[in-house]
Amino acid sequence: MKTTPIKKEYFIGLLQSLKITNDEEINYLYEIYESIIDTINQVTDLASAYEFTPINHINVVLYLINEYRFTTSTLPIEKKREFFENEEFYNQLGSFVADKYLTNEQLKFEDEAFLNKFNPPISTLELYLNFSLRILENLKISDKNQNLLKDLLLKAFKMGKCILELLVKGFETEAFSTWRTLHENECLILVLVKNGQKVFNEYFKHIQYNLAFRGQIHSVEETDKIFEQIKSEMKKHDLKSKDMKKFIEYGYLYKIKNIDDFPHLKLNFRDGVETVAGLSEYSKIYEMASEIAHSSPLLFYSNRSYFFGITIINLYESFFRLEKVFDIFYRQIAQETEYDNFLHVKTTYLSQLQIIHRIFVERMVEINHSQKNK
Any idea what DSSP says for residue 265? Predict the structure, then answer.
């Protein structure tokens, strides 16, 4: 069954909402849009064995507008008229849009996912993440330490959303390797909040060290000065020149409280940041995620259901720890009514997330037990 183009007045309304109001452009784009719909109809008629879904006209228009804008965005309307009279450009633009719509919308590659975005293990956590991200984005903070913590929590919750997105698209190993980065972020957050001002100050210093190391300080004199400071501090800790990079990345750990409690402390993630954060129990999981991130055979020949399970379990556990930090952080700076709104969401949904986590852990235990008994 052929699809007819949307009426021109509706098309005009769409373009006006996208800030295209020039009549000449609108007429030109509507003519191309009509040709694109005709092309799509021809393709769907020829490929009758494939079950196409009804044409989404808004998506077709969005592909068209973005393709057109990408090509002509820097041109004044006078120059655009040259395109209007160019038949080759007209045909190419219509062809590109028809190809992209059919391939990206109708024939797109999709791995079958274990859960869709409407399923509570996904939708409930996404709700909580979205609510928390909105709060964080709207916070205006002058305190340097609080602002750093805000930025780190923002990035952590965004990564949580990214992991959920990958899971509902069927990309379990990619989601698991993203959890690895989230875990590094949460460990840094825990080290900072557990150890207070001295470590915050030192971390800011090491941010500058990193910028200098990566050539991001524009003043040569300032860069030289920073490197002299780095070498001086390394000498205090009996570090060699080969240790410079790891000192720059992890040297702030020398300022942690009760450093004598960590006699085997090293300037790395697993024996340093993760250990000080108190999350060494995740060391083996982190190692597995690192293998995935570095394209080991696990990446290519993995059990999808297994990696789905461990990813969502570890995502939830990271979230629970980060949520506690966020709660304390937000309670300190929010107005009472604002915090009460957050507390309502927490009271309503956190218990559901805890139940979901418990279900997944029990399932994973059952799977491991059944595999051992085979």
Answer: -
> Using CA atoms, how far apart are residues 185 and 199, in angstroms rounded to an integer?
15
Q: Which residues contact 163 (CB under 8 A, 6 or more apart)?
A: 175, 178, 179, 182, 311, 315
Q: Where are the domains of the chain?
A: 8-106, 120-196+257-372
**Crossing angle of the two packed helices 57-72 and 8-17, in degrees rounded to 10:** 50
Q: Yes or no: say if 314 and 285 are a contact pair by the CB < 8 Å rule.
A: yes
pLDDT (tens digit per residue) in 204-221 = 999 999 999 999 998 999
Q: What is the pTM of this model?
A: 0.83
Alpha helices in 102-171 (DSSP H): 120-138, 144-168
140-166: pLDDT as tens digits: 998 999 999 999 999 999 999 999 999
Dihedral of alpha carbons 186, 191, 197, 202, sign = negative
Place of tokens 């990619």: 174
Closest by Cα among 109, 110, 115 to 309: 115
| Radius of gyration of the CA atoms of the chain, in A | 27
User: Which two tokens mark 122?
Assistant: 């996904």
Closest CA to 68 of 23, 15, 104: 15
Sign of CA dihedral 141, 145, 147, 149: negative
Helices and strands in the chain: count of H runs, count of E runs: 16, 0
